[in-house]
Write a structure and sequence with these properties.
elongated; 34% helix; alpha+beta; Beta-galactosidase, Chain A, domain 5; 583 residues; 9 helices; single chain
Amino acid sequence: MQQWARFAILGAMFVTAYLLILAWQKDYGHAETAVQSTPAAVVAHDVSADLPNSQAPAVSSDLPQANIAAAQHTTAAPTAAVNQQLISVQTDLYHLWISPKGGDIVRIELLNHDKSKNSDESFVMLENDAKRTYVAQSGLIGLNGPDSNRAGRPTFEFEKANYTLADAKNATVDGKSAQVLSVPMVLKSADGVEIIKTFTFKKGEYPVNVSYQVVNRSAQNWQGQMFGQIKRDNSEDPGKSDQGIFTLGTFLGGAWGTPDDHYNKLKFANFSEEKLNTDAKGGWVAMVQHYFVSAWIPGHFGTQEYTAKLESRKSADGMNIIGFTSPTINVPAGKSMTVDATFYSGPKIQSELKDLAVGLNQTVDYGWLWPIAKLLFLGLQFFHSIVNNWGWSIILLTVLVKLILWPLSAKSYRSMAKMRVIAPEMQRMKEEFGEDRMRFSQEMMALYKREQVNPLSGCLPLLMQMPIFLALYWVLMESVELRHAPWLGWIQDLSSMDPWFILPLLMGITMYVQQALNPQPADPMQAKVFKFMPIIFTVFMLFFPAGLVLYWICNNSITILQQTLIKRSIDKEIALKQANPEN
């Protein structure tokens, strides 16, 4: 029975390692490294070939499919300019560039997030240059939509080329005062249709409202559909961090959700074969990468939320496109109508994403252990609000988890400590009964019962720690709050490996000390395997996040303290029993 307990403990340890390896293989990318650099000047490229198809023969098939037949457009033909001045918008959170051709967002730099932990450059979220294509496009297609014009994308007129928060105005939004910055762009047709595309920014917020106001001064009814889409090439995730001989990253691809089906991932390879094609009110589409996300959230016709078609596809040149198309907008002659959507491009901050759309916060993907991971993250947030350091927050969280599990683990460690005490008696019985295995088993079970020992109890602490350890792995990998978060001294990034390998070595030492407090296996082969376990796990943890190794060190240290206290308690009980044999 004791041997089965040993095998169970060993098996549990290897299951932990195996699950970590699976998570590791899932999260580590193997794509070729793409160089990310900030160009001296941002150039607007013609991206009309990446728009939805409105059934007009001269328009690219990469446009979303309009639900009405295309006809002769009344909107003026666009200016045939490919390279032109961009509109620069700078807030307290990002620097953003808009192309007048189509009104697409062609570059975003996140000012509060650096390119790497050793760089002062801002993290580039969107860009459109020779090295990488990742842009947010929007427009109007359909019967009279200017983006369905056979001549190509429309070129908007704009008031000025540079906007900052100094241009913002105080306004009341949802009952709260906010600084609002509006960037209008205008397109006019010869027959009197005016289209005003406006980007609205708020100080301290990442979401951008993109609205189209169609003012129909013509003599005919105007019809069209709004679309919003994200176009990305197959380049690797720039959010991945260097891990020595490894490159760390999480899921890179598309995602979408609806109120009924909150979160779905879509690999780039499946954008055509298993492409998205569904209608939803309150849905969203996104491009997900490590720590960051770009998403379109369909909005309203006036004050009414509309049902949008969510779609994904591959363009003719292999670009990955995911987006939405609104229902048909009908604007009678002499009337005006507004349709809008929200675009988000920035860090995956759960509290902000949750308010934008149902399920969008799940782009912070904690895997199948998300309930535990969510609790761990909330605990980390709570302690961080007190100590303002994520490293100390991990330590305090570990202490809290161990205190919660203390009663359960105490029973297991007490049973394991008694196993050490009865080990000489076990050896004596083995020698006495020799080859009589049945008698030996009977006597051993009687001894366990008499001493109140559970030989399988050693598995319980590890089995309890396994889901917590794995969940914390995903928390460290997915929570942008811990990206490049320092602890102390040489640990300047808890989400990456210890550059000096000090923490893994400390983890190995604590694991060895903890193992020395456990009863040793009677089988010599098992004893040798268990002696090598601290070495195996030390090597295994060399390239894992420092925060995860820190958690394991703290967990082992508290376990050592707990086992030592229990051992002393049992030694006192034995001494007292020997001193008073009649009791």
